[in-house]
Amino acid sequence: QVQLVESGGGSVQTGGSLRLSCTTSGGSLANYAMGWFRQAPGKEREFVAAITWVGSGTYYADSMDGRVDISRDNANNLVYLQMNNLQPEDTAVYYCAAREKWGGRYYWSTGFAGEDGMDYWGNGTLVTVSS
């Protein structure tokens, strides 16, 4: 059973950077395409970035404006989200998620909360950006 655990959240000032990490306490992340999502207070969860099983392909939300980079280290069961030039509007709980099938961009950008969405979710890590 895959249980995703996020870490690396915290408080930063505007313009700062953070690197989030996601690992699992069971199973292997190498069997899954992985993604990061976020949910700001009072807003719906939204897609941030996704990466294929071996990292050969990545997909980013347009709203991130090139400020994030997703990567993975399958040997150590880790997936990362590097976030740069953080802004107050980036304040949110960030979640990692796993999906056995890549399935195309739809399942990451739009269909992630549906029945055929993500197979596993973590509990999230809070990122707070102050001005």
Q: Care to describe what's here?
A:
The chain has 131 residues and is mainly beta. It is built from one helix and eleven strands; from the N terminus they run βββββββββαββ. It has one helix spanning 105-109, and strands at 4-7, 10-13, 18-24, 33-39, 46-51, 58-60, 68-73, 78-83, 92-99, 120-121, 125-130. Strands 2, 4, 5, 6, 9, 10 and 11 form a seven-stranded mixed β-sheet that branches. A four-stranded antiparallel β-sheet has the order 1-3-8-7, with no helix packed on it. The longest helix is centred in the C-terminal third of the chain and has 5 residues, at 105-109. It is globular, with a radius of gyration of 14 Å. The termini are far apart. The mean pLDDT is 95.
Properties at a glance:
131 residues; mainly beta; 11 strands
How would you spell out the order of helices and strands?
A: EEEEEEEEEHEE
Supply the helix-strand structural class.
mainly beta
Beginning-to-end CA distance, first to last residue:
40 Å
Poorly predicted parts: none
Q: Counting H and I runs of at least 4 residues, what is the number of helices?
A: 1
Give the biggest sheet.
7 strands, mixed
**Radius of gyration, rounded?**
14 Å
What is the 3D shape?
Answer: globular
Q: Give the amount of beta strand, in percent.
A: over 45%
Beta strands, count: 11
Strand and helix map with partners:
Layout: E1 4-7, E2 10-13, E3 18-24, E4 33-39, E5 46-51, E6 58-60, E7 68-73, E8 78-83, E9 92-99, H1 105-109, E10 120-121, E11 125-130
Parallel strand pairs: 2-11
Antiparallel strand pairs: 1-3, 3-8, 4-5, 4-9, 5-6, 7-8, 9-10, 9-11
